[in-house]
């Protein structure tokens, strides 16, 4: 297992480029199960989760090749089984359920297990597909789904779920008649998926709003499609500029999609400016100020940026209150940040952060993807050496993170634990 060893206390300065979005690329790859012609994806990040998805797609009968950020998919003769060995390493594997039912009327997909950031059930995915005519059984830890041709339906989600909306959108594009998804999630990655499906011949309206209407079509072709930039990686770099008191030009930084994050960073005392070459990020003055933040579905503040913002709050003057509104157990970075000298008091789904003058390097343990990013940020700002252990989480979602950060001045090495 690898760890990152970070010599902290250096300001980051220069240009840093954002890769393609992991959370947009995963549903796009699974959507190729629906296609009858080849598709090419560009700007695909070189990440562990992407390679897991490609492996799963090959098992499902969809030949996929990855080369330098480009994925070529050939039309597949889908096979219905997604084995536990892959699903357990990546929950997003459940996104093959909708496309498999739509294309071949059957699916056997391992039930994703409990997850470090909460129970994360898939009941909304299943309930929606049942309304479209699918029948499900649970057998030996697998979801067994069957249907004749899926039929359009009116589906109202109990909560805006990103994966649920994506799965139902993919199920609906080949269904008979109209499907209406109400209380749909509005995340930009869903818009990216809808735009791709439309480019392949699907009929979708309202994506990006909470009501999506889909008119089923009989077949989908293929196309070439560029994955959107990763708004969470971009946000992590903006925080890196603030926490190290540096000056970064973040290239390919989505501006509108990061608005909720940018507003909070500005309120904390960062200067963030859109330029033709990218987004400039630095502190406006010497110090940062605490702010309160609640994570919410898009366009609210993203839960996937909560841990990183908390690292910045640790070094801001005054207090900050963080309320986690999406997942019930997403404060695993708190004890680790505390080991580095942070003053954080969690209470249920909230945490009170009191700013401290400095953090100290320490051995810390990464527990999930975004918690890992928060520890790397803290390590960049800390005095001394931080060892971030179990970084396989980080490798699931950040492309070449130590290379990118070292290129703007960080001192990070990858070592065997
Ligand atoms: C996606 C993102 C993840 C992000 C999350 C919230 C991907 C691959 N992952 O995860 O990085 O943190 O959105 O922005 O895109 N829920 C149910 N039943 C369901 C589905 C969801 O109760 O059937 C609940 C979840 O437990 C959670 C909330 O709804 O509390 C939101 O989850 P959801 O939006 O579905 O997250 P994911 O799609 O798993």
Based on CA atoms alone, the radius of gyration comes out at 21 Å
Q: Which descriptor suits the 3D outline?
A: elongated
Q: What class do helices, strands and sheet pairing give?
A: alpha/beta
- Measure the end-to-end span: 6 Å
Give the helix level as a range of percent.
25-40%
Strand percentage? 25-35%
Sheet with most strands? 4 strands, mixed
The quaternary organization reads as: single chain
Mean model confidence by pLDDT? 95
Number of helices: 14
Q: Could you characterize what this model shows?
A:
With 417 residues, the chain is α/β, with parallel strands linked by helices. Strands 22-23-1-24 form a four-stranded mixed beta sheet. A four-stranded mixed beta sheet has the order 2-15-17-16. Strands 4-5-3-14 form a four-stranded mixed beta sheet, covered by helices on one side. 52% of the residues are buried. The protein contains 14 helices and 24 strands. It starts with a strand and ends with a strand. The longest helix is centred in the middle third of the chain and has 13 residues, at 231-243. 31% of the residues lie in helices and 26% in strands. α4 packs parallel to α6 and α8 packs parallel to α10. The protein has helices at 22-31, 48-59, 84-87, 97-104, 123-131, 162-172, 188-199, 231-243, 259-267, 306-313, 333-339, 369-381, 392-397, 401-406; strands spanning 2-7, 13-17, 39-42, 64-67, 70-73, 81-82, 106-110, 135-139, 142-146, 154-156, 178-182, 203-205, 211-215, 224-226, 247-251, 270-275, 278-283, 293-294, 319-323, 343-347, 350-354, 363-365, 385-389, 411-416. The mean pLDDT is 95. The structure holds uridine-diphosphate-N-acetylglucosamine. Residues 23, 26, 91-92, 118, 120-125, 159, 161-164, 185, 189, 303-304, 326-327 line the site of uridine-diphosphate-N-acetylglucosamine. Uridine-diphosphate-N-acetylglucosamine binds next to α1, α5 and α6.
């Amino acid at each position: 297992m690898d760890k990152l060893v970070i010599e902290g206390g250096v300001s980051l300065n220069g240009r840093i480029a954002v890769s393609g979005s992991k959370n947009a690329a995963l549903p796009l790859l699974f959507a190729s199960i629906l296609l009858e012609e080849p598709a090419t994806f560009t700007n695909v990040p070189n990440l562990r989760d992407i390679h897991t998805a490609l492996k799963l797609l090959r098992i499902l009968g969809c030949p996929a090749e990855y080369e330098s950020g480009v994925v070529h998919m050939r039309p597949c003769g889908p096979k219905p089984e997604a084995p536990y060995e892959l699903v357990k390493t990546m929950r997003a594997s459940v996104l093959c359920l909708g496309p498999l039912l739509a294309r071949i009327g059957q699916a056997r997909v391992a039930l994703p297990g409990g997850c470090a950031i909460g129970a994360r059930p898939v009941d909304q995915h299943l309930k929606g597909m049942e309304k479209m005519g699918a029948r499900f059984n649970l057998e030996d830890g697998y979801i067994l789904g069957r249907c004749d041709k899926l039929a359009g339906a009116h589906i109202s989600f109990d909560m805006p779920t990103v994966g649920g909306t994506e799965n139902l959108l993919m199920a609906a594009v080949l269904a008979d008649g109209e499907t209406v998804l109400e209380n749909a999630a509005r995340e930009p990655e869903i818009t990216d998926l809808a735009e791709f499906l439309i480019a392949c011949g699907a009929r979708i309206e309202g994506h990006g709003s909470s009501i999506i209407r889909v008119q089923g079509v009989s077949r989908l072709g293929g196309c070439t499609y560029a994955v959107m930039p990763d708004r969470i990686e971009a946000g992590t770099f903006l925080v890196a500029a603030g926490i190290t008191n540096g000056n970064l030009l973040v290239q390919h930084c989505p501006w509108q999609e990061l608005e909720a994050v940018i507003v909070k960073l500005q309120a904390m005392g960062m200067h963030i400016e859109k330029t033709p070459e990218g987004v400039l990020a630095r502190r406006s003055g010497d110090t940062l100020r605490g702010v309160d933040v609640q994570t919410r579905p898009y366009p609210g503040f993203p839960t996937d940026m909560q841990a990183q913002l908390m690292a910045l709050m640790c070094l801001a003057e005054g207090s900050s209150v963080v309320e986690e509104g999406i997942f019930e157990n997403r404060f695993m970075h708190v004890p680790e940040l505390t080991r580095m000298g942070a003053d954080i008091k969690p209470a249920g789904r909230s945490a009170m952060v009191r700013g401290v003058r400095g953090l100290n390097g320490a051995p810390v343990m990464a527990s999930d993807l975004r918690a890992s990013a928060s520890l790397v940020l803290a390590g960049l700002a800390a005095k001394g050496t931080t060892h971030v252990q179990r970084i396989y989480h980080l490798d699931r979602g950040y492309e070449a993170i130590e290379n990118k950060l070292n290129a703007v001045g960080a001192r990070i090495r990858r070592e065997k634990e």
